[in-house]
């Protein structure tokens, strides 16, 4: 079952989105200037995942001022906190804000480099992804 959920997540249809067109060094430099004093992470090969939550969980997320959307990135380019290494995958916490090539979770700003995608996923698919490999720093699955 988990394999089927992940297969659909990774290979099923998605809406293509464009992120920042700068190269890695330019993204890192611009992010240091723009997000002084705030944790940020530059990523590539990313997907925004609109999570279909049960009503009670969705209300809980919204009461925190967040949206039921997370970022999955296959490749970390730079992590200002130094927790993730280059090319680590990550799964963010729920979305606080999204604008163009900047995805902000509760605690971290993510700069989206290159092309990415957006799709809807079930909560079980998100749980399967969280259990798969290096799931990054997301906190939304904690009970």
Query: Rg, please?
Result: 14 Å
What would the average pLDDT be, to the nearest integer?
A: 90
Low-confidence stretches: 139-143
Percent of residues in β-strands: 35-45%
Helix content: 25-40%
Count of strand segments: 8
Whole-number count of domains: 1
Principal-axes geometry comes out as globular
What's the N-to-C terminus distance? 23 Å
Number of helices: 4
Structural class: alpha+beta
**Main β-sheet, in a few words?**
8 strands, mixed
Order of helices and strands: HEHEHEEEEEEH
Could you characterize what this model shows?
- The chain is α+β, with helices and mostly antiparallel strands.
- The chain has one domain.
- It is built from four helices and eight strands, in the order H-E-H-E-H-E-E-E-E-E-E-H.
- Strands 1, 2, 3, 4, 5, 6, 7 and 8 form an eight-stranded mixed sheet that branches.
- A hairpin with a 2-residue loop joins strand 5 and strand 6.
- Helix 1 crosses helix 4.
- The longest helix is centred in the N-terminal third of the chain and has 11 residues.
- The two termini are 23 Å apart.
- This is DUF6957 domain-containing protein.
- It comes from Pseudomonas kribbensis.
Primary descriptors:
143 residues, alpha+beta, eight-stranded mixed β-sheet, disordered C terminus, globular
Q: How would you summarize this macromolecular structure in one to three sentences?
A:
The protein is of the alpha+beta class.
Q: Which helices and strands occur, and which strands form pairs?
A:
Elements: H1 2-11, E1 15-18, H2 24-34, E2 40-52, H3 55-63, E3 69-79, E4 90-91, E5 95-99, E6 102-105, E7 109-112, E8 115-122, H4 123-131
Parallel strand pairs: 2-7, 2-8
Antiparallel strand pairs: 1-8, 2-3, 3-4, 5-6, 6-7
Helix pairs in contact: 1-4
């Amino acid at each position: 079952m988990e394999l089927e959920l992940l297969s659909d997540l990774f290979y099923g249809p998605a809406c293509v989105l464009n992120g920042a067109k700068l190269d890695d060094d330019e993204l890192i430099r611009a992010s240091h200037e723009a997000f002084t004093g705030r944790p940020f992470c530059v990523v590539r090969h990313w997907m925004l995942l609109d999570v279909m939550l049960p009503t009670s969980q969705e209300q809980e997320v919204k009461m925190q001022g967040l949206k039921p959307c997370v970022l999955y990135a296959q490749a970390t380019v730079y992590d200002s906190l130094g927790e993730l290494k280059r090319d680590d995958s990550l799964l963010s916490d729920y979305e606080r804000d999204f604008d163009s090539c900047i995805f902000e979770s509760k605690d971290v700003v993510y700069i989206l480099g290159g092309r990415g995608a957006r799709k809807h996923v079930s909560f079980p698919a998100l749980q399967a992804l969280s259990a798969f490999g290096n799931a990054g720093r997301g906190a939304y699955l904690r009970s």
